[in-house]
Structure formats: C-alpha cells, structure tokens
Design goal:
The protein is α+β, with helices and mostly antiparallel strands.
C-alpha cells in the first residue's frame, strides 16, 4: 500500500467540490470508510465522494467505474454506487476522484449474512443480471483474475504454506485437494462475461441478515463467471451455495463449479492473511476478514463439487 502524500480531510473534500462541482459543495461531509484502494466520504444523505489513497492502481479503477457502471447499474437488481460526477487531478489533489450514489447497509465482514435462502436468491439474481457478454474493449486481465486457474498454483501453494505455518489452516491437505481439483478443471470456453471481480465480504452490504447492496466495482472486467461464482462459498452461510446454484442462470456446469471453488480458495487464503494481520496489528490488516475466510474453507472442505 502506498498512501498518497496528502491527508484527506472533510475540508479537502469540500475544497475539491468547490473547485470542480460547486453545486455539491454545501452538503455535509463526513468520513464513511477507509477501504483498500479508496477513502469514502459521505456527501449529504444520498451521495459519497471516493478518493484514491493507498494504491497506485486506484486511479484507473475509479475511471473504469465512471466509464462503465452507469450503463450497467439499471439492469442490476441490487443497489450499487452509481457514479454521478468525475473529479480530475489538480494542484489541490493530484489524482482523479468520483462522486457516486450512496448505498446504505453494513459490510458483510462486520454484519454477516444470516438468512441463507434470501441472500442466495438475491446474490443469484444479481449475478445472473450482471453476467452478460461484455463489449470487446472491456479489460479481460482483471488484475490477474482473468487467466486460467493453474497460473495461480505457485501463489496458492505459498499462501497455503504460510497460513498453515501461522496455524490458520487445520487441514491443509484438504484445502490442497480442493485447489488441485479446481486447477485441473477445463478452462472457460464461453464468451467473456461482465464480472464484478472482487466479491469479498467487505464489498457486500447487508441489512436484516440478507444482502442489500454491492459496492466497489473498480475491478470490473470480463471473463470466466467462476471468478464471481466463488461468492457462493465465501459470502453465504451453510446451505446457501446449493440454493444459489439452483437459482443462478444459466445453471453452472460441473467444470465452472470446480473453477469457482478454486477462486473461493484464493479468496479465503487472502482473507486469512488479512485477518491475521489485523489481529496482530500489521499494516493492511483487517481482523473482520478472518472469520468469513475460515468459514469459507470449512464449507469448501465439507462439500464436493456437484
């Protein structure tokens, strides 16, 4: 993480708005969240300002959202943050930023899904609507998530060994078996579909135990739907995955489910390390990422692909 050299404050956000979008500058401003790539500042009750602060790639991710999400959002059955304005780099702040609609709810890493059936239906409907063929000019690399699973085998082996050494994985052989089966599955041969690309619990919002919104579309890209279908194991409670697969259309074939389980292993290993770093106060750590990752691995080990 490479933090921007400028401290982001409510006063800075107001000044940026006065410079480029003065009609919004008199709204109340307060900090909403500090994410992995961006800071989020509430702007009144219905808008938010997102400013990159921690990663060099955040600039391109914000511009990507601003380009594509307004056209995608109307067909999605869950609320998403729709870009309204673009802020350009300036002497006051040397990076782009955007104003989006505000989506209410609590991140699922802090308020987990508890109503499995309702959440499975909501997630399946959302991904069915999103997973449509994307235009040819849409990115298909997806920050390393667009290629065949086998290309990640070395990384998975390293992360699994590290997590095991830290005492985070009680049965590494079982996790390895899930991964090896996934990596051996046939590659996606269908069209490049729109993908969210980053459906970890902190990017899913919940209310009353079910999913009420999806945020952070910076990783939006086109490719194999298995990348997103991993969410059935990483987001939904026990029993939710089967219901999700029954509702999602078209019904995923066995090879796609095998690959999705592999992407779920990757997501869980990331969560284990980020969670452990949070518990021990290391940079970039978030303790709330650990429990969903542990639960995902337990579910993956306990079930076989259909």
């Amino acid at each position: 993480m490479t933090h921007t050299g400028i401290e982001i404050t409510a006063e800075l956000v107001r000044d940026l708005l006065r410079d480029q979008h003065p009609d919004l500058a008199d709204r109340p401003v307060r900090l909403g969240a500090r994410g992995w790539d961006n800071q989020l500042w509430r702007l009144g009750d219905d808008l938010a300002v997102r400013l990159p602060w921690a990663t060099e790639s955040a600039d391109a991710l914000l511009r990507k959202e601003h380009t594509w999400l307004p056209a995608l959002a109307p067909r999605l059955p869950l609320p998403v943050p729709v870009p309204q304005r673009l802020g350009e780099p300036s002497a006051r702040f040397p990076r782009p930023w955007i104003v989006t609609t505000w989506v209410p709810g609590e991140p699922a890493d802090r308020a987990p899904v508890t109503r499995a059936a309702e959440a499975a239906d909501a997630l399946a409907a959302f991904l069915t609507a999103l997973h449509q063929p994307a235009p040819e000019e849409v990115d298909t690399a997806g920050r390393g998530r667009g290629g065949p699973l086998a290309g990640s085998s070395k990384w998975v082996a390293q992360q699994l060994a590290s997590a095991t050494e830290l005492g985070l994985v009680p049965d590494p052989d079982a996790v390895r078996a899930v991964w090896e089966d996934a990596a051996a599955a046939p590659d996606w041969a269908g069209p490049a579909l729109w993908l969210h690309g980053d459906l970890h619990p902190a990017n899913i919002l919940t209310a009353d135990g079910t999913i009420c919104g999806v945020i952070d579309f910076g990783d939006l890209f086109a490719g194999d739907p298995a990348v997103d279908l991993a969410a059935a194991w990483t987001l939904l409670p026990d029993g939710g995955a089967d219901r999700f697969h029954d509702v999602y259309q078209p019904t995923p074939d066995t090879a796609t489910l095998r690959r999705a389980r592999g992407w779920a292993v990757i997501r869980a290993l990331v969560g284990l390390h980020v969670g452990d770093a949070g518990i021990h106060g290391r940079p970039g750590g978030k303790p709330t990422w650990g429990p969903p990752a542990h639960a995902a691995l337990r579910r993956l080990i306990a079930t076989t692909h259909r």
